[in-house]
Write a structure and sequence with these properties.
Length: about 500
């Protein structure tokens, strides 16, 4: 069965548990195209029973998956990468109609996903531990690295396809089995399509499970994850607002969490920067996926001598971006995910304008299509510039600076610490400044969203805990220390 085989052009989806699709039927919820509310899918509205069944299947599959030879696991991941590439056109369409993703963004995600699958395919061969030195005569000591058990993942709607892989693939590559709960806004591209791909690749039943739920029903499903002893880690990608709720819940059940949250992601353009390169990096970094990615640039600090030219040329580039239906391959700016997102950006732009900001370009909505927007002269107390809360949409604040040290200080005056960029021709100067950024990621001469499958993504402060790439081994495994003594012990009593 394919999740796309529904009537009237829309899909009818069920849960994927223990290697099989559950029988369609029961309560469903609509998944709609954010552009025009067209029905994309009727998805199964799961709850406690489905979540429990999925956790039980993952727990039962764990011993065999954890002990599968690295070469056998490698073959599965490599097959999945090939299937992702084979299904490119269908995935591009799915991400457009379900999430509003432009072709540029969906193909970016597909490339990264296939690359990550191929890299993760080799991770099973990483050393399984270390031999340690002991001060006790005749004692041998070593640590072995073991998978945790079941990892439950919350996958987001925004970079849905790639971020879902990142949520469950890293744990699986290190021998964990998984249950994921995709965002109710994009359950197909944030999990169900992955189930089809892994099923076709031949992943063993129970190693990967997906449970979908209606809006408002997330916490019942989440409770099953938190309460189940088999679930050893919750891997959440989303907003810090929801992470706080989940973090409190994790505290009560003493559950390990990995959190990939938002960012404010400043760019500092020093006076010796290549202005053309800076414009390209900022246009891409701020407006890819309509500014709905955790690593989008939210604020640019430009050396005063470059400021006016930078703003004028950036605005020209941004005005030329085609806005509209993302199934049109030339469209770069698709719709925002929902009305709440449109309202957030509209309110914040208005707040800045009311306080005296200058609108350089954008600032208007046509339905959920919001023009990419640049503001300057934004007073320090406007919500969009304080860094206290990310505006999850196509809004960029540009500010001139005289002293790079002040720009560096101001750029870090935010509770977030995900990504940052510095543009300069003086690489030594850039590197020096980069080392003083309190973020999980910093780039010299690249956008704040310069993602590569192999490079670790993750934040500090309110941007989260944990890292992707092969560093995820720290998050999704634990070590067991073993000693073996060959001489009689010496005891004080
Ligand atoms: P959004 O940007 O859509 O507000 P978030 O990133 O905050 O989304 O989180 C969305 C994810 O968190 C979704 O998978 C949603 O189902 C889940 N979620 C939201 N509220 C809760 C809750 N109270 N308990 C558990 N999960 C929740």
């Amino acid at each position: 069965m394919s999740i796309f085989d529904g009537p009237d052009g829309h899909a009818v989806t069920s849960h994927f548990i223990d290697g099989a699709w559950t029988t369609p039927g029961g309560t469903t919820f609509p998944v709609r195209n954010p552009l025009d509310d067209a029905l994309v899918a009727e998805a199964a509205a799961g709850g406690v029973a489905e979540a429990e069944a999925a956790v039980a299947a993952a727990a039962a599959a764990f011993p065999a998956w954890a002990n599968l030879a690295p070469g056998a696991r490698q073959e599965l991941f490599l097959k999945a990468a090939d299937i992702v590439e084979r299904r490119t056109e269908e995935l591009v369409r799915l991400m457009a109609v379900e999430g509003g993703a432009s072709r540029a963004f969906s193909t970016f995600q597909i490339r990264l996903s296939a690359a990550m699958l191929r890299q993760a395919a080799g991770w099973g061969y990483q050393p399984a531990g270390d031999v340690l030195r002991s001060d006790t005569p005749g004692r041998m000591a070593f640590v072995t690295r073991k998978p945790l058990g079941v990892v439950a993942g919350f996958t987001p709607w925004n970079g849905a396809f790639y971020l879902a892989w990142r949520t469950f693939l890293l744990p699986m590559a290190f021998g964990n089995t998984t249950v994921i709960k995709p965002s109710e806004l994009a359950p197909l591209s944030a999990g169900l399509v992955h189930a089809e791909i892994l099923d076709e690749a031949g992943f063993p039943p129970g190693s990967f499970n997906v449970v979908t739920h209606a809006p408002g029903a997330a916490s019942a499903v989440a409770d099953v994850f938190f309460e189940s002893p088999a679930v050893r880690c919750i891997n959440f990608t989303g907003s810090d607002r929801t992470a706080r709720i989940l973090g409190e819940r994790a505290g009560r059940s003493l559950k390990r969490m990995v959190l990939e949250l938002g960012g404010f992601n400043p760019v500092i353009i020093l006076d010796d920067a290549d202005i053309e390169e800076s414009i390209k990096a900022v246009a891409f970094g701020a407006f890819l996926h309509q500014g709905q990615v955790c690593m989008n640039s939210r604020k640019v600090y430009v050396a005063r001598p470059l400021h006016d030219e930078f703003v004028a040329r950036l605005a020209d580039r941004v005005r030329a971006l085609k806005i509209g239906d993302p199934t049109d391959p030339d469209v770069v700016i698709g719709p925002l995910i929902d009305d709440r997102a449109v309202e957030q950006i509209a309110t914040r732009v208005q707040d800045a304008l009311d306080r005296g900001a200058t609108l350089i370009t954008g600032g208007k909505a046509d339905g959920r299509l919001y023009q990419p927007t640049i503001l300057t002269d934004v007073p320090a107390d406007a919500i969009c510039t304080t860094g206290a809360d990310e505006t999850f949409g196509p809004l960029l604040v540009v500010e001139a600076f005289d002293d790079p040290e002040v720009a560096l200080r101001d750029a870090q005056d935010t509770p977030y610490g995900l990504s940052a960029s510095i543009m300069t021709r003086d690489r030594g100067r850039g590197l020096d400044m980069a080392q003083r950024f309190d973020t999980g990621i910093v780039h010299v001469n690249a956008p704040t969203m310069a993602s590569e499958a192999s490079l670790p993504v993750g934040g500090v402060k309110h941007s989260g805990w944990g890292r992707s790439g092969h560093y995820a081994i720290e998050d999704f495994t634990e070590i067991r220390m073993t000693t073996m003594s060959s001489e009689p012990g010496r005891y004080p009593f």
